[in-house]
Amino acid sequence: MSRLKGTTRKLLVSFFLSAVITSSNALSLHAAKLNRRNALAAGGSLLVSGAMPHSVSAKQQSIASRLDADILTMPPSSRANELNGIDNTYYPQWLAGTWDVTQTLKNTNTPLGLKFIGGPNGSLKIAQESFEEQQKQLNIPVHLQLRFVNTKFGVAEDRLFNTRQRLDNFAGRSVVSSVEYANVGGSNRSSVLALGGSENDPLQTTFVRYKGPAAQKTFLLSHGEEKIDSTSFAAYESLRSIFALTNQNTAPPVTTDSENIWYFELVNEDTIKARLRIASYLNAQSDSLYFEAKNKAVAFADYVLTMKKCI
Ligand SMILES: *[C@@H]1O[C@H](CO)[C@@H](O)[C@H](O)[C@H]1NC(C)=O
Ligand SMILES: *[C@@H]1O[C@H](CO)[C@@H](O)[C@H](O)[C@H]1NC(C)=O
């Protein structure tokens, strides 16, 4: 059985920390330190799923309303679009371009109670520390760039560019060595090319190598899009990140599940105001409180973003 040795454990934690603080939330940081194991038990109530791209109108407000909901249930995995191999989250045309972004954490919450962010054993002490750690980030703007690109299939997030921007800027230093796309059944290069797409079109899955012996693979578990009107758009992506050491160490990978919920509003052609909620969920096999949480989010981090188009 692999147990993390002190130094390696610190290393993993430190790489993981920068990643978590970045793309998601410091609340799950301590839980993550304790070697969460990969376990998907998606289920529960579905609001809007990428599996039903054409059934949006009946559920018009449901993604946007997730930004303000007191309780959220993890969306189930979407599989229906995997047949074409070009599945992705596609955005409105007005998001295409490169943007100077200010992203600010405005609110954090533990909707089921503090103990649910207390790691595998639901430790209140760990929970308290995690919560205080994240409170320190409140109202501190982080500057980064985000890019959305035109493809034959729609406007997609440039995940290579955006992932690096998020990880480096939230860490406050350069931590990323490389970011690549990885092929999965639902989204892969050969399908994109076969259907007339390009070598550079974004795929769903990313593989990050850190400046150190650690790597992170992030899978899109499900997504949904909601056009509200000509200048407002909501979307969600549920994501699974697996962090692992890339040296000889046999420590088991660290897995976290989260959901990003977006609301974009075009103010004028060069300005977008956006909101982002990052919701964290527990894993079945690692968290003793998993069943008590009933697939509900245990932490919210709510951000506001101002996006100015780069020339
Ligand atoms: C790419 O996607 C197609 C369609 O889903 C699938 O048949 C194929 O196996 C995928 N290829 C890879 C390398 O995942
Ligand atoms: C959780 O509880 C188990 C059993 O009491 C204990 O062996 C383990 O060390 C605890 N883990 C943490 C991180 O506190």
From TrEMBL:
InterPro entries: DUF6816. Residues 1-26 form the signal peptide. It holds the Pfam family DUF6816. Keywords: Signal. The keyword Signal applies. Residues 87-309 form the DUF6816 domain. The keyword Signal applies. This is DUF6816 domain-containing protein. It comes from Chaetoceros tenuissimus.
